[in-house]
Amino acid sequence: MKPRHKKLLLIVGGVAVLGIAAGLVLNAFRSNLVFFYTPTQIAQGEAPKDKAFRIGGLVKTGSLKRDGLTVHFIVTDTRKDTTVSYTGILPDLFKEGRGVVAEGKLGNDGQFTASQVLAKHDENYMPPEAKAALDQAQRQTARTLQP
Fold it and tell me: In CATH, which of 2.40.50.140, 3.40.30.10, 1.10.3720.10, 2.40.10.120 is domain 35-145?
């Protein structure tokens, strides 16, 4: 084999290894990607039934019910509500009427089973997607109430 062919074979082999590595990284990234949905989007059927995703909004006042370590509450974006159940210890800042982001899966019965619950960390913070969804829901509610 000529040196020129060896060099070409080495370059082709290197490109193939880089392509395989890039494909594996992209596949891992895609499988770990978690999307964000609002209760309105879930009600419209936009959320996946078999994949994990995040739901965000406000914890509806009066909806918090405890059953041992399992907690049931309703997340709302002021237009639609989604029931969430979570087994575990809630964050200290978790309260009714405050912002929340929960990660988990949507069951066939329409109930969201959370594997992780995140509460906002101070008075001014809310995930940008949740804030935009709440603002949009409030604008649409205001339009429907106008004569």
Answer: 2.40.50.140
The per-residue pLDDT for range 104-114, each reduced to its tens digit, is 998 888 889 99
Cα–Cα nearest to 99, from 89, 91, 111: 91
pLDDT digits (tens, 9 = 90+) for 122-146: 555 566 776 777 777 777 766 766 6
Paired sense of beta strands 112-119 and 35-37, if any: unpaired
In whole angstroms, give the CA distance from residue 32 to residue 107: 20
Find, among 88, 80, 78, 79, the residue nearest to 113 by Cα. Answer: 88
Residue 130: CA count within 13 A, CB half-sphere? 20
- Is 48:34 a contact under the CB 8 Å cutoff? no
The 8-class DSSP code of residue 90 comes to P
